[in-house]
Amino acid sequence: MKILLVNDQRLRIDGGAGPLTIEADSAEMQYSPFHMLASGLGMCIYSVLRSWGTNAKLSGEDLAIEVEWTFVEDPHRVGEFVVEVVWPSLPENRRTAAERAAHLCTVHKTFQHSPQIHTRVRAA
Question: What is the topology classification, in CATH, of domain 2-112?
Fold first, then answer.
C-alpha cells in the first residue's frame, strides 16, 4: 500500500501488497500534518470500500483514493476536503452504493460531527 504525495495539498492512496510506504514526486516534498490528516481520511475510506467491495464480490485491486484539501482563514485551517474514489473496475450500477459506503468511514463521520478537543500541558 502506498501514499503518494502529489503536491502540498493533494495525495493519492493506492492499494497493493506489502508494507505501507509514503512516497513523493519530489525529494523536497515533506509529509506534513495536513498530509497526515488527509491520509487518515483517505485510508479510512479505502478500508471501508475494500471491505464493502469484498462483501459485494467486487475486485478492489484497482481501487485508489485521492484527497485534496483547501485552506480557509479566520482561523487558518483546512476548510474543505475533496475525495475522489478512483475505481475503474467498479460497475456503473454500483457507484451510488460505493459512494454511500464511503460515507460510513468513521473519520468522515468525525469531520462531520467535530469532537471536543481538550489540550493539557503537564510536566513529565
Answer: GMP Synthetase; Chain A, domain 3 (3.30.300)
